[in-house]
Amino acid sequence: MDLPNSLEELKKIVLNCHLCDLSKTRKNVVFGEGDVDTKIMFIGEAPGATEDEMGRPFVGRAGQLLTKMIENVLEIKRDKVYIANIVKCRPPNNRVPTDDEANSCIPYLLKQIEIINPKIIVSLGATSYRYLTNDKTPISKIRGEIVKYKDRILIPTYHPSFLLRNPSKKREAYMDMLKIKSLL
Ligand code: URA
To answer: Residues near 152 by Cβ (< 8 Å), separated by ≥ 6?
Structure first.
């Protein structure tokens, strides 16, 4: 697929995408949002119900936690980073995206990364890490590591939804955010 090098042109294509069946059940495509001149991109798994309603990434409960991690720990405003997902449309009942869904959608994300050109990519949760790197190391083992990713740094950390279900893991996520802050 030959994708445009302009984010606006890319967004037009993604908003009209019908490559997989998620396009049949979505309310809105969630392209991603933030500062295109940022040094840091956060990448989640797929939109949930609130994101599907609003057409914006990480605006539900997990999003509120992510926003706090960015604003309170990194001490940068959420609109100064870029936030996107592996898959741009909500999987029914928030199930994990299938390989087919992720593989048909990921070229859009890779193009976003190329255009935005961040120094640091933070992958949120196992799905995001796995589809970006093809590495199946469990997130509990790889989190907080500095992983070389093309000419960038990738730091995997827990997904904020996982942290909402497992608050005792917030300390490790906090350490990861401090490491990210020191690299910025
Ligand atoms: N979870 C994700 O992975 N992405 C979102 O945008 C919202 C919740």
So the answer is: 113, 118, 119, 120, 121
CA of 95 to the centre of ligand 1 (A): 12
Instruction: Tell me how far apart the alpha carbons of residues 85 and 104 are, in angstroms, rounded to a whole number.
Output: 13
The rounded Cα 43 to chain-centroid distance in angstroms is 2
pLDDT in tens, 35-74: 999 999 999 999 999 999 999 999 999 999 999 999 999 9
Indicate the pTM of the whole model. Answer: 0.97
Q: Which domains, from first to last, does the chain contain?
A: 7-183 (3.40.470.10)
Cα distances (angstroms) measured from residue 48 to each of 40, 53, 122, 167: 22, 9, 19, 20
Ligand 1 midpoint to CA 159 (Å)? 9
With a Cβ cut-off of 6 Å, ligand 1 is lined by 44-48, 51, 57-58, 60, 62-63, 85, 161
How many angstroms is it from 58 CA to the middle of ligand 1? 5
